Amino acid sequence: MMRDNTYCSVAAENRGKFLEKTTTHIFKSVFGPKNVFENVILKQDTKDTAGEIDTLIVYGEFVLVVQAKSKRVTLKARAGDSEALKKDFAGAIQAPYKQAVECIEHIRNGARCTSVDGKAIAFPAAPRYFPVVILSDPFPACTILSRRLLDRGRNVAPTIWDLGALDCIARLLPNPIELLFYLKCRSDVFDRAISDSEYNFLGFHIRAKLALAEDVDMLVIERDFATTVDDYMISADVGVEAERPLGILETTQIPIISAMLAQLKHADPRLAGVIVELYGASSAALK
Question: Is the pLDDT of residue 53 over 70?
Answer without folding.
Answer: yes
